[in-house]
Every structure is written in C-alpha cells, then in structure tokens.
Amino acid sequence: MTSLTLVRRIRARPAVVFAALTSAEGIAHWWGPDAGPVLFAESDARVGGAFRVRFRMLDGSEHESTGRYLELVPPERVVMSWQWTLGGDPDERGEVSRVVIELAPIEPGTELTFTHERLQTEAARGSHERGWAGALHKLERYLAAGT
Amino acid sequence: MVKYRPAQLDRTFAALIDQTRRAILARLEREDGVTVSALATPFPIKLPAVMKHLDVLEDAGLITRSKEGRTVTVRLRPQPMRDALDWLRRYERFWSRSLDRLAEYAEREDAAARRAGR
Fold it and tell me: Shortest Cα distance from A21 to chain B (angstroms)?
C-alpha cells in the first residue's frame, strides 16, 4: 500500500475552501485530472453521507468515483472513503482507499494538506519490495530533460 | 484514468527488477553512449552475463545497441521509462491538477464573498 501527500497554500479562508471541497457545486468546479468536464457531482456532506462524481476526460473516457464521509470537522478536516465505480484505475478496481484533507488557517488564507492513503497499486508493492520505483525516480532528471 | 499499455509496463518493470540492469541504466543516464566493454568493467560478472542483461534491456526497449566495426555502443531509450514514471505518478497528476483548480475556485469564491461583504 502507498499514500500520496500534496500541499497547497490557498488565498481563501478555510470555511470557503471547506465548502468548495464538500459541496456538490464546489466539487463540480475542480474534480478531475484534466480540463474535461465534471458530468455530475452529488455530495451529502455529513458523517456517513455519500458523494459521487462522474467526469469526462479530454480523451472522451468517462470515470466515476464514490465514497462516504467518515469524518467532517468544518472547516478543518475531511476524511472520506474512495473507490472507482466506473473506469478509473484497473489496479484499484474493487479496492477502497481513503482521502484525508486537513485545512489550517495561515496568512493569507489556508494551507491544505491532501493525503490519499491505502492505494493498493502494484507500483506501491514494487516500490517497496523491488526498488524499481527508486530507479525510475533517479532517472527523472534525464527524463525531464527529454531527448 | 489514462490509457497505458500493460504489456510494455510489465516489460519495463521486469527489466528494472534486477540491480545490475538498474546500474547499467543509471550509467547510461550519466553518459550518452557507452561501449559494451566499458559498461561491463565495473561489474564482478563476466561479459556474457552482461550481454544477457543487455538483451533483456533491449527487448524491453530501454536501450539501443549500435555496431561500428568491432565496437558496440549502448544508449538509453527513455520513452518506456517516461511512460512508467507517468504511470507511477498517475494519482499525483490526478490530484495535483484537481487541487490546482480547487485553489483557483476557492480564491474566486472568497474574493466574491469579500466584495459582497461576507
């Protein structure tokens, strides 16, 4: 298993960021890996409530993920379960991972720490057991330079 | 999320499992174009064993070999590794772009709320 952590500093108050994260209207504005549209977003933002988001990528493929809110502490913390229900990632099919988002007030706004935990990818296993992910990352400078 | 070719990924990762092969690739990253004999020198294994590793790397598309006279020069072919790295990072890309848009949206919302006196 592996996890991924990303941090963003946002010039908006934590309450505004929290609403953008957990409201259906907010989710529809930002969810997805490229400029393709969110097709629909549903969010029942209370503990035990569900969310469902479907998006279309620029290549035309459609993907949907769903989950439940496990913790909601406005405007500080969101924990949700997360799985693909359409398309997505074959490695994660049927697997439930977990997203943890923490919001801290900073000047001038919010520091958002995003963690996607318990990803069951082959990459994660290989990375730990075989070391090849490390080998790839070492080559990154070369790869970034292009040829 | 993104279309990948699983067979090529398997070949890439299978090639990268071996420490000697990783060392060869790391050297080719530092030096563009190394002869087979120069490549073999640092390893405590015999030349035929090195040649077998080079066969695996070439089959996986990670290197090319070109022959001039009696000298064979080995070069790195980065595309399969670039694809493998993209695959490893697919969640990072997914969330990174999503969070960038989340930040833009929240900043617009906050600015609009402040203008409205909220």
Answer: 8
